[in-house]
Amino acid sequence: MGDLLFLAHRSPFPPDRGDKIRAYNVLKYLAERKRVHLLAFADDRRDLDDGGLASLTASRKVFWRDKSRVAATLEAMAQGKPASLTAFDSTAMREGIADILTRETIDTIYVFSGQMAQYVPADFAGRVIMDFCDMDSLKFADYAKDARGPMRWLMAREADKLRSFERATADRVHASLFVSAAEAHLFRTMTGAKNVQVIENGIDTDFFDPEAAFKIVGERGPLIVFTGQMDYRPNVEAAAWFARDILPVIRVAHSTTRFAIVGRNPTDAVRALASDAVIVTGEVADVRGWLAAATCVVAPLKIARGIQNKVLEAMAMARPVVASEPAAEGIDHDGTILSGARVDDIARAVTDLLGDKRRAEALGRSAREQVKRRYGWEARLAPLGALIGKAAAARNAA
């Protein structure tokens, strides 16, 4: 039985944002079953320290990625490719992969995120598992709808080029994985791909537990919390929409309510939202303290693909959650979170929860129980065992 090569667009450690949390838990699950070699990129200097991955990997190498968006776009235009691929195109990565495939017996390549599919050698004879997570091409199609002028054309071009690449990738791999049934259905419908499977995101309910040991922040009064990577466009747009359009409606009934935007790397646009009513924290050591302090947690994303970790984390912390319909769509919440599509819908749901503490607490407790039943990592990742088992069986038969 051979080893597994894990390719990731961002180092899985530390698991401190949505994509890295999924990648880390998938890597951990696979490492318990096969010998794993990891090659990944980093765009944060802290991620170059790979010591946290030592116990999971037989070998590992993290490459620094600093190609600018402008350079990636110019390369994409010249080469007729999507910028999502040229942004991650690296000679060093190709050489690292060639070296591993030469030195080690690899029977399975696990590709995490579509940008990394370009690195699977055309002549690789083993099994390739493609974890798309969600359908990136649709994200850019959504961007195009809201853009104007040349940017609209660029986003539409990216969506079209990326969709063609996703379709071609699905045709050459053994399995295409997505985080939700809705996302998998869209992919099948739009690409005609056959072997599409759902591997949902999970949550560590021992860590995200209101009874665990952590420091609760000292904010007083009604507090609404939104968490996420705050240089990620959908999060930036969500924070601005809530702060400017939804929060003022809520404050008509609850005038002392404050809105906390909690997450690393807030853009200038996010920092500009700060006021007496809006807190912009930047990076925090432990998001659980803010979640525990929240009277209500919101996820007002206009563009959301797959399962939102931020929603699972809030549910696990037994907080009442109000999400936009796109943010709630991929989650099997069984009515334990509230959702809405418009300003009035979301504002009304939050206002009602702020005015009914007993209902809010009951909803939060139900949300935690639902997450414990439905979203433990071991259960969510169990289908991966069969996928890599098939790879091992095929290798032994050969």
Textual characterization of the structure:
The structure is a single chain. The protein has two domains: 3-202 and 377-397, Glycogen Phosphorylase B (Rossmann fold), CATH 3.40.50; 223-374, Glycogen Phosphorylase B (Rossmann fold), CATH 3.40.50. It is an alpha/beta fold. 46% of the residues lie in helices and 17% in strands. The termini are close together. Keywords: Transferase. InterPro entries: Glycosyltransferase_grp1 (IPR050194), Sugar_tfrase_PEP-CTERM_Stp1 (IPR017521).
Q: Uncertain segments of ≥5 residues (pLDDT<50)?
A: 391-398
CATH architecture of the largest domain: 3-Layer(aba) Sandwich
CATH class of the largest domain: Alpha Beta
What is the CATH T-level topology of the largest domain? Rossmann fold
Radius of gyration: 21 Å
Q: Tell me the number of strands.
A: 13
The level of helicity is: 40-55%
Number of helices: 16
**In percent terms, what proportion of residues is strand?**
15-25%
By oligomeric state, this entry counts as single chain
Could you give the distance between the termini? 10 Å
General form: globular
The largest pleated sheet is described as: 7 strands, parallel
Return the average pLDDT rounded to an integer: 93
Q: State the order of secondary-structure elements, H for helix, E for strand.
A: EHEEHHHEEHHEHEEHEHEHEHEHEHHHH
CATH superfamily of the largest domain: Glycogen Phosphorylase B
Q: Which strand order do you get reading across the main beta sheet?
A: 3-2-1-4-5-6-7
Total count of domains: 2
InterPro entries: Glycosyltransferase_grp1, Sugar_tfrase_PEP-CTERM_Stp1
Protein name: TIGR03087 family PEP-CTERM/XrtA system glycosyltransferase
GO molecular function: glycosyltransferase activity
Keywords: Transferase
